Amino acid sequence: MSGTCCAAKKTLIFACSGGSNVGQITNDAAKKLDQEGVGSFYCLAGIGARLDGFIANAQGADEVIALDGCSVACAKKALEDCEVPISTYVVATDLGIEKGHHFNIAEAEIVAVCDAAKQASAPS
Hints:
This protein is an alpha/beta fold. It has a single domain, classed as 3-Layer(aba) Sandwich (Rossmann fold), CATH 3.40.50. Helices cover 41% and strands 14% of the residues. It has helices spanning 21-35, 44-48, 52-59, 74-81, 107-121; strands spanning 11-15, 40-41, 63-68, 88-91. Strands 2-1-3-4 form a four-stranded parallel beta sheet, with helices on both faces. β3 (63-68), α4 (74-81) and β4 form a beta-alpha-beta unit. α1 packs across α5 (107-121). The longest helix is centred in the first third of the chain and has 15 residues, at 21-35. The termini are far apart.
């Protein structure tokens, strides 16, 4: 009997990781979600650079979690441009976190993004 019946779901997490507090909050949230076993933090730069192996791996994921810092939506746009379907989408500024060019990040902000991603990706 094949072992594929019980194979783990492949969940990839992509974060904006931009040059503002909210970009770094999503980066930190992606790391935390990976450490918690929610999915594997994956390289958005490889998607943006249109590297075939990165795109194929992302397209083959069972679930894709995209975390953007703000409404510019860099992660979402990069994934959509490469036809990677997004299962769960969270924007830090939509959670009431104010964007600024500083890196004074509170742990509660990282937890808020993680909680929103876990809640949005939970089975209904």
